[in-house]
Specification:
Helix content: 10-25%
Number of domains: 3
Structural class: alpha+beta
Distance between the termini: 79 Å
Shape: elongated
Number of helices: 6
């Protein structure tokens, strides 16, 4: 026998005991206050399970506890124990077919979104491979938060609507001057570049949000530093974000302050196609300069009959590439 004890209501319920019938209408108290119809009742090792259809959204639901409306206490599912309501079995069958179509449509949309996300991740990995420093210890990101707090239920939280990569750091210390510096890289966070102690939040305690720069963690833009164990972990974590080019607002160090002489190394420069050149080899030390020349990093180029990572250029860049790279 399975029982549920509601501490606040001081009542114990037997979930093995059936309290409503098929095709009976029940209601949800709290949140949307929706109405449901029970289209099936099944047994589990924890008691009975009531299979539901939301009459407003035409979607499936499930619950294992439905209480009498005469004993209403708090959020939950209730049935009218004084004037029970029922739907015609034929109407329920039609409703169930509609809910099934909605479920299939939702699953198809999720599948399409998953496939799109995988495509964006592949693009994002390529972009990050080209710009993430080898000595990266942390990334500084901006997040746009939407307040989802509900004072009626004493819930406080937010939803992240967008993430933008602002810069990289070779250390893990939380420094507000560093956050303010990269805030200027993105128009929406440029106002955080000016020193304002009211925007500096230090919440390094249990359930706190850590160090972040912004008006509030519940709404608007905030800036914070995120740490990961390795460069590869960072790239994988932010691949989807970087899939949208507008989400990368990192200023690459100017080439003017770099040495102008050619870089010597184990490089291979080949004619990749009629209109393109490819560069292979250990290019990590010159990746920013290759990117500045208009190169595009691709981890899956073909060279010598195998897949290799390399850079693709227009053949119009041939002389500039040879000026930059000296092959050993």
């Amino acid at each position: 026998m399975s029982k549920v004890f509601l501490l606040g209501a001081n009542v114990k319920y037997d979930t093995d005991k059936q309290v409503v019938e098929k095709n009976q209408i029940i209601q949800m108290n709290g949140y949307e206050d929706d109405r449901y119809v029970v289209y099936d009742i099944t047994g589990t090792q924890w008691g009975l399970s009531y299979e539901l259809i939301n009459l407003r959204t035409k979607t499936f639901g499930q619950c294992d506890l439905i209480r009498p409306l005469s004993q209403k206490f708090g959020i939950g599912y209730y049935f009218d124990d004084e004037n029970p309501q029922f739907m015609d079995a034929f109407e329920v069958a039609i409703l169930r077919s509609e809910a099934e179509r909605n479920r299939q449509t939702e699953q198809a949309a999720k599948q399409q979104q998953q496939e799109r996300d995988e495509q964006l991740k592949a693009i994002g990995r390529e972009r990050l491979e080209a710009i993430v420093p080898d000595d990266v210890q942390a990334v500084i990101v901006a997040e746009l938060h939407e307040d989802e707090s509900d004072g009626m239920t004493d819930y406080y939280g937010y939803r992240t609507q967008r993430t933008v990569i602002l810069g990289f750091s070779a250390h893990t210390r939380d420094l507000f001057p560093e956050m303010r510096k990269v805030a200027a890289n993105f128009e929406e966070t440029a106002h955080l570049a000016e020193e304002n102690r009211d925007y500096e939040h230090r919440e390094k305690y249990s359930m706190g949000a850590g160090y972040y720069l912004g008006e509030s963690k519940y709404h608007g833009w905030t800036i914070q530093k995120e740490r990961y164990g390795s460069r590869e972990q960072f790239i994988e974590r932010y691949a989807l974000t970087a899939g949208e080019e507008a989400n990368i607002c990192v200023k690459v160090q100017a080439e003017a302050d770099r040495a102008k002489e050619a870089i010597t190394g184990d490089f291979v420069i080949v004619d990749y196609s009629e209109k393109a050149l490819a560069v292979f080899g250990d290019t990590r030390q010159v990746k920013d300069r290759l990117k500045a020349l208009g190169g595009r990093f691709n981890p899956k180029l073909t060279h010598g009959g195998t897949k290799k990572a390399g850079w693709i250029f227009s053949k119009s860049k041939e002389q500039e590439i040879k000026n930059l790279l000296t092959v050993k």
